[in-house]
Amino acid sequence: MVVATTFPKLPYSVSEDFIALSALAAQPFVITTRTKYKSIADLVEFGRANPGVLNYGSNGIGTSGMLFMEKFALVAKIKMTHVPFRGTPEAMTEIVADRLDMFPGPALSMLELAKSGNVNALAVSTPQRSSSMPDVPTLAEAGLPGADYTFWIGAFAPAKTPRSVAERIHSEIIKALSSPDVKKKIADLAADPMPMSMAEFDAFVRKEIKLNADIFAAAGITPQ
Description:
Layout: E1 2-5, H1 14-17, E2 18-27, E3 29-33, H2 40-49, E4 55-58, H3 64-76, E5 81-84, H4 88-96, E6 102-106, H5 107-116, E7 120-124, E8 151-158, H6 163-177, H7 180-188, E9 192-193, H8 198-219
Parallel strand pairs: 4-5
Antiparallel strand pairs: 1-8, 2-8, 2-9, 3-6, 3-7
Helix pairs in contact: 3-8
């Protein structure tokens, strides 16, 4: 079994390379900003008035965080400057120091910083609010529908796996995701369970591949 985060590296064929078993969990990115931005509207207003001045960090070119930020910029109709970092701690240091405007922070990394008031958590990237940050609105609720982006983890089996075996694995995955112990472990990671039927997950992955390919193209990124 293969566990993949967000989407398999392109090029990828669901039917030829893998059997999609189920999504496992979704963890939202949090639009994390300097404290001067009080809302998504504030952020977008500044970005539109100052093309290219608004900067955002990510953990590198082609990462899920960068793709989310590029989708955010496309939907918001703003131009931003990308600043790659080696990791989340370095980016958070720059936001607290008022040198970086925005970072797509993993929810687990943002909880305490947001509570302490050192950064602002303006919205979560998922279509629904996160159970770990229930007071933080979704992007649609914050006034930017269509900018959502889900960081997900899913399970796949090799394409030659017998269908009966794949279905048995899928059944065990769904059982595990309904277990209170597993739910707690996922919640401890500031994530939410994401069970799907095999058909639903297969369709979901195909949609995600197209979404990310479209973002790559719109942002002018060439997959390596």
